[in-house]
Amino acid sequence: MHSKKPFYILVALLFIAGMAASVYRGIEHNVPFLPGEQVQSWAVDAKVSFQGTGEPAEVTFSLPKDPAFEILAENATSPGYGLSATEDDTGRQVTWSTREAIGQQDLYYKVTLVPTGKNEIPADKEPDAPQAYNWPATELAAAEQVMNEIWSRSATNLSFAQQLNKSFNATERSQNLELLLTSNSRAELFIRMLNSKGIPAKKVSGLFLEDQRRRQQLTNYVEVYHQGQWIIFNPNDGTQGRPDNLLIWDRTAKSTLDVVGGVNSQVNFSMLQDTRSALATSIDMLKNKNALDFSLYQLPLEEQSLFKGILLIPIGVLVVVFLRVIIGIKTSGTFMPVLIALAFIQTTLLTGLVGFLLIVAFGLMIRSYLSDLNLLLISRISAVIIVVIGIIGLFTLLSYKFGLSEGLTITFFPMIILAWTIERMSILWEEEGAKEVMVQGGGSLFVATLAYLAMSATWVQHWVFNFLGIHLVILATVLLMGQYTGYKLLELRRFRPLAGE
Amino acid sequence: MLFAKPRKLKENGVLGMNKRNIDYIGRYNPRKFYKRVDDKLTTKQLALANDIAVPALIGTVCQQHEIMHIPEMVNNRDGFVIKPSQGSGGKGILVITKVENGHYFKPNGHEVTPSEIDRHISNILSGLFSLGGKPDVAIVEGLIEFDPVFDGYSFEGVPDIRLIVFKGFPVMGMLRLSTAASDGKANLHQGAVGVGLDIGTGRGLHAVQFDRPLDLHPDTDKRLTEIQVPHWDTLLHTASKAYEMSELGYLGTDMVLDQKLGPLLLELNARPGLAIQIANGQGLLPRLKHVEQMKNKSMSVEERVAYAKTHFSSLPSA
User: Fold this and answer.
1) pTM to 2 decimal places
2) Could you count the other beta carbons within 10 Å of the beta carbon of residue B30?
3) Alpha-carbon distance A431 to A418, whole Å?
4) Contact A467, A26 (CB under 8 A)
5) Contact present, A165 and A233 (Cβ < 8 Å)
6) Element (H, E) at A321
7) Which of A76, B42, B223, B304 is deepest in the core (most CB within 10 A)?
8) Predicted confidence (pLDDT) per residue in A378-425, tens digit
9) H or E element: which one contains B285?
10) Residue A354 neighbours by CB distance under 10 Å
11) Cβ separation of A374 and B115 shorter than 8 Å?
12) Is B292 near chain A, with CB under 8 Å?
């Protein structure tokens, strides 16, 4: 007897791989675990406007790059302008250019964003030590006093920044600070003081997202490097960390908008919150990234819907294996119930059951005539197939005439399967009587109904198509059930006399 | 209580279907030998080569056009049996007990027309009764004149004796008696009576119908546990020999008692059912494990039968 260990390792591997693939897909690709899940998205419009001077104009505008928001769609519009986009380590930019700009010019950039929940800003590499700011002679003493006083109260770069931020927003600020703030903006002063102490810090501009707001401006924030991350500070109100609805627009520390050949340039933002399907959102995002590997969404629509059906078969098979191996229900034909269940999905359950019973009953009547003809089996079954097609055609026509639209779905039944069912039932009837036909046919329909209920659940359909890893888990389960040597549930009943009670 | 506790069944050594399939059939029955039992014609030829008595072979029908030779084949015979060579579960067996002027009659007296016989054989050849619908061969066999010892115990049909043989040891036996409810058939799920037999003596131990214990035959009111199967040693030897012949470790042998010829091997089964446990009122597992623990001691048929008689008997030897 060979060891079962490799088998169990294989099953465990399949199970883990399937689960891991599904979880990865759910978390990394944001495919929702439940169907019908909704996500919030933000539509942000930036309007860049300036007065043209009649000369060639070139407008450079920074675009958002923020790990907390994923870009679903973006576009820039501006009739008569050339457009180019660039991207480097620090950020992304779009450049509009034209030979001649006269009068009021409006350029638009629209972006749709989905929050990712990744609110931290990791630093790819350790930033260079900043250059100390050369304080003007009038400020030097005051600045040093403030910095040294706070430095002595802090332990790390982060706590220095925290203490500094706190003192900026204290109700009673020191004279020194008041003096410094008359000639420096808060953000500038904050960065200069941090840099003077050798702490990397830079200005970032962010947009506060609020539903249905118009004519919004970017707000300045400061990000301070601390242990592989950039921490956001707002020196204007003394807060640390970023609010969920803050979109970091520009981290280049350069100006967000540069206009050459124009005056009075400004940028305004308006935004709108929207709710959309989580699934559609994640598919769009995957398409953006060209990361549709192992996703059936890259197939043409027709093949997709085909696969939606095919991928339900493992669920039906799982139900049949479970009912036969663990419960012990007998079915006529191993996988006939799965095929019937697939037909039920098209016809809905009640119509399907009625249609199935009608076809089989009529088929049995015609078959009983055929059995008197002494035909060869092959030609008899062929005749039954043709007759079944005739019955289906007749029922479809009748239900159409009577306006029963449900009846039209009867064509989804697999005809060869029906013909075989009729043939087997007929033989069963002759050999073992009508009762056995009811028992076996009823058992098959019962299993088919359960398989249908499992296969038609929306979350099951969602899972088998969007999380292909689940099929590995089903495979592992089926393999495992194939090794089950315990009693079937119905055997506990059958062998009851042997329980010694 | 609708369901037995699995623990109780385990304690009593009841073999379940899944365990039978995986731990016994799967492990001890090599796939390549299945043909020896699944094809009754092969079984018959093997049995004849091994000096095991089988019902007389009248002829075979392999092609549709040979069906017309049936009347001359069964000429001068009182009765005959037509069965598919690869049938299972007793499906497709047609028994004719009386032939009168070209008219055929079933055991219950109903007439079977020649065209019905033709169609039946045609169905067999087309594979209607074989596993997976494979084209099949029809076997025409001599009728068994069954031993009158079972008169009054069986209703219309042929009583047959099923022995489970594990690695050559007969481990459990059962006598199957047809009833009015089973329509002359000997399949327990159709309502035949199963009588558990003592391996040591061939005496009736315990009887069931539809999985429920009973003492008297439902149609004839004869006491079932008083049955003593004759030719018991021959039956055990025949069953045990079937192991060498088929090379299947877990085997069901079906035999009948002919008035003149004695025990005849009807067929072998590589997947014998588990109802025998209910008929015996006890589980198979302790006996199977007993044999498994003996490892691979090579023993002759006689030694195995003697061993089984001493170890698997639940009655004091007569």
Assistant:
1) 0.71
2) 11
3) 20
4) yes
5) yes
6) helix A313-321
7) B304
8) 788 788 888 888 888 888 888 888 877 776 777 777 777 788 888 888
9) helix B285-293
10) 15
11) yes
12) no
